[in-house]
Amino acid sequence: MLELSAQTGLGGLELDIELAVPAGRCLALAGPSGAGKTSALRVAAGLLRPERGHAACGGRVWLDTVAGVDLAPEERRCGYVFQDYALFGHLSTWRNVAFALDGPRAERRRRALALLERFGLAGRAGAPPRELSGGERQRVALARALARRPAALLLDEPLSALDARTRAAASRELGAVLAEAEVPALLVTHDFAEAALLGDEVGVIDAGRVVQRGSASELAAAPASAFVADFTGAAVLTGTAGEPENGLTPVALDGGGEVATTDAGRGPVAVTVFPWEVELAPAGSHPAGSARNRLAAEVLSVTAVGNRVRVGLATPQPFAAELTEPAARELGLAPGRRVEAVFKATATRLVRL
Amino acid sequence: MGPGTWFAALLCLSLAAVLIFLGLPVAAIFLDTSPTELIASLGQPEARDALMLSLRTTAASLALIVLVGTPAAYLLATRSFRGKAVVVTLVELPLVLPPAVAGIALLASVGPTGLLGSLTGDSLALQTAGVVVALTFVASPFYIRQAQAAFAALDRSWLDAARTLGASEAGAFVRVAVPAALPGLAAGTALALGRALGEFGATLIFAGSFQGVTQTVPLAIYARFATDFDAALALAAVLVLISAALLLAVKLVGRSSTLAGA
Question: What is the ipTM for the molecules in this complex?
């Protein structure tokens, strides 16, 4: 169990977090850059001393500002994977891993090579880090972090330095390592999808605070705030909720238009809906169907995202829909084209503002 | 003639002018002495004493500079504190100080009648130890500046990584910072070496020019050039050779350390 709490000012940002990660589990802290994610890791590792804070792992107290306990980073046994991996450029790959090991040289070399072997890097042991690919560097950093048999794993954006193609494979491998690890793992990322993939649980962090915590699907399905909804990838429309009628709440949108939602709420609210729940129809058409909500919209952008197409819309509030590529072609979507965005009232979530 | 050709010619001419201006005097030292003369004048005890003294004092002062200057430069590069700009300026001051002023300043501080005269007495002024003090005073800023820049250019996450991998603060310094900054430290050593080996003014004023005690090669050249120009020339030739050899060695150290990981 890794327990961490910290309250400290960080030049314009007030970090205030409290979290616990059981052994064998991975908590992914996701949030935009500047939210204090890396600072949280640094507090855990002993690289940043908070004004007030407490950290303990496996029954051992690492930090207690009240009792005056503050173990040095080397005494905490954290396996820390840095954002750019921080491999020592003046040491070969195996020496990077052996850096973390104690004992006679031959023994350290043998154990470093065994670890590299496990990560499929035995053939790269003598190479300097600058000759490794991004994916190889990431695995060396991981092998090095595990070399000391850490009491906790701390990972700072472990996939962000990789190109899109390498990332998929690296994330599968990292997932396997995390699943195998018997220690608590704390991972931070700016990418919600990455957090959902690698974390057993996701905490969304904004402006130094964890604003919501839960499984990735819980967060996506029931975001506690517009920020979480936006961060999980949902489109957000703001407006004012009116008197419910037949179990439906009407929301008058800022800037014009009205939508209905099955969620209850009054006053200023945000309506969230996932882009893949939104259908597009030619303007003025009247297709039959159960969808309650129809919003006149103008296409702003059409972007391919993998095998899908994300369509940016102005309703006039910014909005988004995701379609398959053939569907987008059939509709002749291009910036400036007028369409109707159609979605069911049951696909929306209401968040009080 | 194309529009770019005259400019390329101008660049080449400028470089040629620089090479002739810098190279001709150095070449003249060797063209003006025959090898036999050179060896003969080195047989003189004055010349041998001066050479040995220069090598001993330069080595001693470089050892001092590297031993004390490296951690000091590391502190300046990795910590911020109130008044740091003032400290850095103080460290760099000897760079712009005329050597004669440095000599006077040393006399006024650690000379027999200086500020700390009651502590140092006659142990430094006009003694070999005084030469080492003078060389260290004028040469150390060259090393510390370069070392500070080399440490500041290090990726700070390497030092953090070293800590999380079990190294103490001192361990991160010895096992990561110094080896990773070695090319910069070597360059700084080369600069300090050149400055120390050629030191003249501060040494003359603070330590004097006594054969075998404080008369380094530059002082010996000065003492000889009016009366025995050939002997002065021979000493100069040796100084050029030693400086070039040491510069080359230091550059090779820097080069090989950057390739160590390969």
Answer: 0.78
Kindly determine whether residue B164 and residue A89, on different chains, have CB atoms separated by under 8 Å: no
User: By the 8 A CB rule, do B180 and A86 touch?
Assistant: no
CB A28 within 8 A of CB A187: yes
Q: Which among A73, A89, A90 has the least Cβ separation from residue B163? A: A73
Q: Widest CA span of chain A, in angstroms? A: 78
- Does the beta-carbon distance from B165 to A90 stay under 8 Å? no
At A353, is the secondary structure helix, strand, or coil? Answer: coil
- Interface residues of A toward B, Cβ cutoff 8 Å, are 42, 45-47, 72-74, 76, 78-80, 82-84, 86, 88-92, 99-100, 102, 128-130, 144-145, 147-148, 154
The pLDDT tens digits of the residues spanning B91-143 come to: 999 999 999 999 999 999 998 888 888 888 778 888 899 999 999 999 999 99
pLDDT per residue as tens digits for the range B197-238:
999 999 999 999 998 899 999 999 999 888 888 888 888 888
Asked if B161 and A46 come within 8 Å (Cβ–Cβ), the reply is no
Model-level pTM?
Answer: 0.79
Comparing alpha-carbon positions, the chain A residue that sits nearest to B258 is A90
Q: Mind listing the pLDDT tens digit for each residue in A182-239?
A: 899 999 999 887 888 788 999 999 999 999 998 877 787 777 887 887 788 888 888 8
Q: Which fold has domain A2-232?
A: Rossmann fold (3.40.50)
- Whether B167 sits inside 8 A of A47 (CB atoms) is no
Partner-chain contact B157 A83, CB within 8 Å: yes
**In whole angstroms, how far apart are CA B9 and each of B13, B16, B23?**
6, 10, 20
Q: Can you identify the CATH homologous superfamily of domain B44-261?
A: MetI-like (1.10.3720.10)
Top pLDDT among A351 and A14 is at A14
A73 contacts in chain B (CB < 8 Å): 160, 163-164
- Minimal Cα–Cα distance from A84 to chain B, Å? 9
Topology of A235-352 in CATH?
OB fold (Dihydrolipoamide Acetyltransferase, E2P) (2.40.50)
Across the interface, whether the CB atoms of A102 and B155 are under 8 A apart is answered no
* B45-78 helix and B178-197 helix, angle to the nearest 10 degrees: 140
Residue B175 has pLDDT above 90, yes or no: yes
Residue boundaries of the structural domains of chain A: 2-232, 235-352
Establish, for the pair of chains A and B, how many residue pairs have beta carbons separated by less than 8 Å: 74
Q: Can you tell me the mean pLDDT for A251-273?
A: 88
Residue B7 burial by Cβ neighbours in a 10 Å radius (0-12, 13-18, 19+): exposed
Task: Out of B165, B169, B176, name the one closest to residue A144 (CB).
Answer: B165
Closest CA to A237 of A316, A312, A322, A343: A316
pLDDT of residue A325: 86
Rounded Cα distance, A21 and A23, in Å = 7
